[in-house]
Amino acid sequence: MFCNDLREKYEEKIILKGVDAETMNILLDYTYTSKMLITKQNVQKVLEAASLFQFLRMVDACASFLTEALQPDNCVGILRLADAHSLHSLKQQVQNYIIQNFTQVLSYEEFLELPADVLCSTLKSDDLYVTEEAQVFETVMNWVRYKESERFPLLPSVLENVRLPLLDPWYFVETVEADQLIRQCPDVFPLLQEARMYHLSGNEVSKNGRLLLLLLNASAQKSHGKEHYYEAEKEIITERTKPRMHEFQSEVFMIIGGCTKDEKFVAEVTCLDPLRRSRLEVAKLPITEQETENENKKWVEFACITLKNEVYIS
């Protein structure tokens, strides 16, 4: 403003709008002393002024203060502030906080003010801290109804982040399909159909927990002169059939690979939950297209290890 060839350079008096006297005094003190006192009462005004005048160290200090002050009742406001001033690191930290404290944040109406893009990225996370997927569905519907006329067109894109196949089938029929907004939105029907097909295939919610690993090589397993085969059925696999990390956990079996009765390679990785009598195909083995097309190469070997609650295959 003053160093470049702008109008203000030649004026004797310049009116600075948007900065009150108290905040300006804090900036002037910092200019001469490199010290300032940040409080809950002044942090927003100091951040806005520091951003306006490009006091980058002050901006960083305010961002650090806000990160330490995150609470369920103020995180949405801090998120909007970070977004307004392009503080990407602070914005990411606030989003992570919301993901990790999702159920507490939901209890405050301010959550309903979240922008659509932030809400979608939050609900999409595998680490979203919920105990059941019904909480996520109800969150979406409450968010849409908060500004229904404005947000109803966004329902399909937001609902994509709800893992409808993992809902209890009775809840899906009685609550989801019966919802009037859902029934009035044809664009969500493919998502409903995906959940229906998943439920009709006999799958139920399967939670990842401690792993009991069962590895079947991609060849016939011989035992006492008999051959045992694993034959995979076609399963529905999308991002919406993958359980979230923090849902109720249980001990499961992981069946990796195998072969069919025709001695063909099986690339599926299946999770079996004996307690719930459920089965879920969770991944595909890292087999190349060339190996898939090569009919002569029937057997492929993989290495497999477990670490905490993860299975790694190569």
From TrEMBL:
This is BACK domain-containing protein. Keywords: Kelch repeat, Repeat. PANTHER family: KELCH PROTEIN (PTHR24412), KELCH-LIKE PROTEIN 6 (PTHR24412:SF428). The keyword Chloroplast does not apply. It comes from Bambusicola thoracicus (Chinese bamboo-partridge). Residues 75-177 form the BACK domain. InterPro entries: BACK, BTB/POZ_dom, SKP1/BTB/POZ_sf. Signal peptide: none annotated. Pfam families: BACK, BTB.
